[in-house]
Specification:
The protein is mainly alpha-helical and 110 residues long. The chain is built from three helices and two strands, in the order H-E-E-H-H. Helix 2 runs antiparallel to helix 3.
């Protein structure tokens, strides 16, 4: 997505504010530093997630990991099937925990 005019102006202002102090030289050859004016940093707005997009994603990933663990245990003949199933179940536990935490916060906001 192309950058908007406001984004380009903000990035140009950020580059200018990070620049070194200017050095001025008078007719005699004396050098003095000229301080740049202090600009307050503009805080960018934090994007707000609307809807349950993160909630749905974590639910589907957790469900997929549980199904993968089940498949490894019962439908494969690999020698390391219990190891792979354990890893998939561990990932499923982590995503299930994240889903529960997000679901509780989503429900409290409603």
């Amino acid at each position: 997505m192309p950058r908007t005019k406001a984004q380009k102006q903000r990035s140009a202002q950020a580059r200018r504010s990070k620049a070194r102090p200017l050095v001025a030289q008078d007719e005699v050859g004396n050098v003095e530093q000229v301080a740049l004016p202090n600009k307050t940093t503009q805080q960018r707005p934090v994007p707000v997630k609307r809807g349950g997009q993160g909630l749905w994603m974590e639910a589907f990933v957790a469900l997929g990991c549980w199904m993968l663990a089940f498949t490894f245990v019962f439908f494969t003949q690999d020698a390391n099937r219990y190891l792979f199933a354990g890893i998939a179940a561990l990932m499923a536990l982590v995503y299930s925990f994240m889903f529960v935490v997000r679901f509780r916060t989503w429900r409290q906001k409603r």
